[in-house]
Backbone:
């Protein structure tokens, strides 16, 4: 199995329907060596195929093997800011949310032990960039969630996030407004318990 075969499979995907994503994900799941190629294609940001690669990467991280990201965390975190296509940013934001949820899980896991402060800082920086630039609702929702979680240990994040939600996000779509209000409630609860 090669990167060319994977590229061909991605090119043959007509749309992001579940069965299409699962079919291509299965090829990677059966050949773990293709995972690094999938990441490389995801960050070939000038190429539209990067969108389909991002869909599959997010599908694998969501439904199968988030821990496969561990050897690639440096590459993933250092390159997410370079992603340009809306349809590729959304899956990257969702992966960031999964990483934050795993990192703050009560259960011990490999993400907790391997995600570094430097990588978290890079995710946070990219997240704030996503919130201050025009993005789709899903990107904003995932980003607000992971920024809230990473803000549990970094004092400066919650005030910045709160300011952005109150001054900008709450005036956007209904979906952004709802998630924004939810995050503001969580920030308030956290401040009271601190």
Residues:
């Amino acid at each position: 199995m090669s990167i060319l075969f994977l590229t061909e499979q991605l090119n043959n995907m007509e749309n992001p329907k579940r069965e299409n994503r699962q079919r291509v994900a299965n090829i990677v799941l059966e050949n773990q060596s293709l995972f690094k190629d999938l990441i490389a294609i995801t960050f070939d940001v000038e190429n539209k195929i990067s969108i389909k690669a991002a869909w599959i990467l997010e599908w694998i991280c969501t439904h199968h093997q988030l821990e496969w990201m561990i050897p690639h965390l440096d590459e993933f975190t250092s390159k997410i800011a370079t992603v340009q296509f809306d349809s590729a940013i959304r899956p990257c934001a969702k992966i960031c949310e999964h990483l934050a949820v795993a990192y703050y899980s009560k259960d011990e896991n490999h993400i907790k032990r391997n995600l570094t402060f430097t990588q978290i800082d890079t995710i946070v920086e990219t997240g704030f960039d996503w919130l201050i630039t025009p993005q789709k609702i899903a990107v904003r929702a995932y980003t607000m969630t992971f920024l809230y979680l990473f803000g549990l240990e970094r004092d400066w994040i919650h005030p910045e996030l709160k300011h952005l939600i109150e001054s900008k996000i709450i005036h956007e779509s209904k979906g952004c407004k709802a998630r924004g209000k939810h995050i503001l409630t969580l920030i308030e609860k956290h401040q009271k318990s601190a």
